[in-house]
Amino acid sequence: MSAIPSSVSASATTPWHAGMRGFLKGEADTWLFVLRTTVAFFLTGWLAMRLQLPQPGTAMMTTVIVMHRQSGMVLAKAFYRVLGTFAGAVGALLIVALFPQQREPFLLLMALWIAGCVAGATLHRNFKSYAFVLAGYTAAIIALPVISTHPGQIFDSAVARISEVLLGLLVTAVISDTIFPVRLRDTLRTAVNNQYENFLGFMRGALLGEVPRERMEQAHLRVVRDAVTLEDLRSSVIFEDGEARARSAHLQRFNQRFMAASTTFQSLHHLINRLLRQPDPAAGQALQALYLPLGAALQASEQSPAQLAEQIHAVRKGLAARSGELRTSLSGVSQIEDFDVGTQLLRRFVKELEHYVHARRQLTLQVAPTEDDARAQFVRGNDYLGAAVAFTRTAITMLLLSALWAASGWAMAVNVMLLATIFSGLFATMPNAARMTGKVAWGYLLGVIAAYVCDYMVLTRMEGFTLLVAGLLPFFVVGPYMVSRPKLSVFGLGYTMGLVNILAITSVHAFDPVRFFNEGTSQLIAMGAAVLSFALMPPLVGTAWLRRRQMAGLRAQVGLAAQAPLRGLQHRFESINSDLLHQIVTHTAAGSEESRQQLAWALAVNETGRALIHLRQDVAREPASTQLHQCVDLVVRALADFFALPDATAWQRADTALTEAIALARAQAADGGVAARVLLHLRLVRLAMVDDSSVMAAYIAPIDSNPEAPRHAH
Length: 714
Hints:
- This protein is mostly helical.
- Helices cover about 75% and strands about 0% of the residues.
């Protein structure tokens, strides 16, 4: 062993220029992003002026808002911005048509429209959320400036805003796709490959006993993160790449197979651990011996998906004979039943793993998606109370600002409402929204100051579009550069919006200090109003209260597994669970006791819910006897009640229902048929419920006379 510390050895062997190369690459990517943003910004302005659009600044602001490092993100954002713009225009036309000369009802309905759009934004992810935000403030941008002066110009205002936004979107999409584009499809391919290789590597190590036990549960968090990330990328890349769009259904099926195999493996892993902790661990040891051939089949890392699928299929075909041999070495009905439970889980896992590998192979083939592929939709988990809070906060803010406008008669109050609308929507789905909006406000203030310097100390000495670009360029590039830096991105967004918004670039630029002061003051008041509204009624995102509510929603998914229609239920159940857990752990300190409890409950929900789904599927395919069917129904309802509101009494009811159903299924299992399979599902759930090392241990009521009672460690 070397006496030199590893960190010193590593630094001594690392070339001095390695860090510089990484720094220069990062700076090159940053400045390419700045270049694309700048070209799109000024080209849009030039075209808007040539087309004589009334407000070129609106088109130019659009390029700033939708620009992204990756072209697929730009196209996705542009698509949803178009939808939001048209929806907002329609909303503005309808509201003005209803109350063209009645300002108070108009402002009330406008406040409710904006609040409803913000609430809708909280129920969606990614750029779908942005479309709702945009529908809200587009209606305000179109309607508010004309309602108090010329309501009859509402249609012209809508056409102008739509034209300006579409021009900005078109130019941005073309520039991002032609000037050194960064393809989102490359990121998606990397994500697919990493998910596949990491999962197989983890399976290989776990099956061969090379993964420490404490890492097994944490691996579930990685599964959740990988599944949600892949779905987010898939939903955006379809706008960029035709091939990815054609394979979208295959990607969804691939992700579904991934979640199914990982959930079954977690159940198998926990079952074996429970059996190994028993006084006689023979059943657990037999299961370990049973899955060894699968670990050996996964060892060859250079296999193609087709070759690996064949090897896994061969292992699956040999499971019956191998399990029969190992089963003869066990004594006692309880051990044999435990082994049969594990054998059933292992068969399911091997089959799902084979399907997962096959789905990976299909991503490389030119095959049409099947009907099952088309049904594999990733379902999100939402909390409608958070949307209600967002609706209430936004409606109150808009109504108060409307009252300010109506009472004061201040012309610039329109600007206050417009900007407050924009930021109330943009940050409604973020944790610490008041803090984030405050950062934007400071950036906005700096942008206003920079705009003053640019407008009255630089542009007053220049004439023509070329000199406008030359004068504005040094001030503008600061914004995109800050946006490209994670720590400064929010501040940079505020700076850029403040600079562009206050300059209000038009074909004939007017230098009016009074207008500049009034608009700057109104816009900063709007930022303050947005900060204050978030401070007085903060979003629920990331709060401990909402995490507890989301965890209750996650546990309630057992009720979904118990009662929802079976068609497509498994994927719906797993995708909602993944999305809910991802929302919860995102705002929880990693490694904390709260995080461990959340993960333990998530695993218990997955295991119990999947068992109930398979139990219901078996009963549906081959109806059980009336008495057994009634007992199974009692078990399903009792488990749903326990997970919905866990306590010792609910645990006792579920345990009693399980015990009675197991006894009846065991009595009928000798005749074969569905009773034998029902028995295995029930015992799997029972073993999880009485596990004194699980999250349910706090609710267990020991029954000393029951041979299956929880075995507490001393």
